[in-house]
Amino acid sequence: MSTIKTIIFDFGDVFINLDKPAIKRELIKLGIPKAISLDMYHIASEYEKGLISTAELITHFNEKFPNVATQDFIKAWNSIILDFPEHRLEFVEKLSKENNYQLILLSNTNDLHIEQVIKNMSLPRYKRFKNSFNKFYLSQEIHLSKPSPSIYEFVLNDNNLQARQCLFIDDLKENTESASKLGIRTWNIIPGKEDVTQLFTIKNDLF
Question: Does 38 have pLDDT greater than 70?
Answer without folding.
Answer: no
